[in-house]
Amino acid sequence: MTTTVFVTGASSGFGAAIARRFAADGARVVAAARRGDRLARLAEGWGGAVHPLVLDVRDGAAVAEAVSGLPPEFADIDVLVNNAGLAKGLEPAHLADLSDWDEMLDTNCRGLIHCTRAILPTLVAKGSGHVINLGSVAGTYPYPRGNVYGATKAFVRQFSLNLRSDLHGTGVRVTCVEPGMCGSTEFSTVRFHGDQEKAADVYAGMRPIEPEDIAESVRWAVSQPAHVNVNTIELMPVAQSFGPFAVHRA
Ligand code: NDP
Ligand code: 8X3
């Protein structure tokens, strides 16, 4: 039986790597994001196994309509990868742009629950399936100016655990993948509103993890035997670790 995977944020970074990884394994993949040209390029060369879906996850009604309108061969979803997300801005809270905060909440939290609510009934009805949510180390470990971004990822982490409680006994699995610094994506360019030089500086002189490493983690969690639920995967580059508590001395 062919697995069907629904990946959000598939036009770039992790999502594109995850879509390619599953397609290479022979899965059918629904690749969702806002940029249709990127999705069309991603779908090329997979012989129709990758279905591009232009979708803004912030729009709950559009998500429900898109999921219910999937072509029959892509409608029987087994795996939902809630990957679409973004950081916007890196300012202290009192200077941050409120519209950046709203966009992170709307995408990382509301977008994720829109997709989950739309697809979950399919998984529960067949008594199997897997929801993979992209959290972040920023959801567990605070860092200066991480304010709302980190808070949205704490939401993703707790929502994932709460989902497991609700899905107890249904056979549906839930995993939260929580990466640290990952290069070769548009994450930092988006965070710095298109400033590529500033984005490149984030990874200067260190080796970040790569989108393919994340895709491999996702594939590993999904490929565990059906009686095994991987609750959380936290991974970061060897070059990244922890700092001390900050102490202000007068
Ligand atoms: P990218 O910016 O490369 O990819 C983000 C993806 O999300 C794009 O495909 C973008 O597509 C999509 N997206 C953004 N907004 C929406 C929306 N409203 N509707 C649908 N799709 C949307 O970043 P990454 O691949 O690095 O990030 C992927 C996920 O991993 C995010 O949730 C991020 O928070 C998380 N993460 C990233 C880390 C990193 O260091 N890179 C580390 C830890 C977690 P489009 O613009 O076409 O809609
Ligand atoms: C992205 C990782 O450390 O830049 O979620 O916040 S970090």
TrEMBL record:
Top-rank lineage group of the source organism: Bacteria
One Pfam family per UniProt: adh_short
GO MF annotation list: oxidoreductase activity, acting on the CH-OH group of donors, NAD or NADP as acceptor
Keyword Cytoplasm among UniProt keywords: no
Keywords in alphabetical order: Oxidoreductase
SUPFAM superfamilies the record matches: NAD(P)-binding Rossmann-fold domains
InterPro entries for the chain: NAD(P)-bd_dom_sf (IPR036291), Sc_DH/Rdtase_CS (IPR020904), SDR_fam (IPR002347)
Family designation: Belongs to the short-chain dehydrogenases/reductases (SDR) family.
Protein name: SDR family oxidoreductase
Lineage: Bacteria, Bacillati, Actinomycetota, Actinomycetes, Streptosporangiales
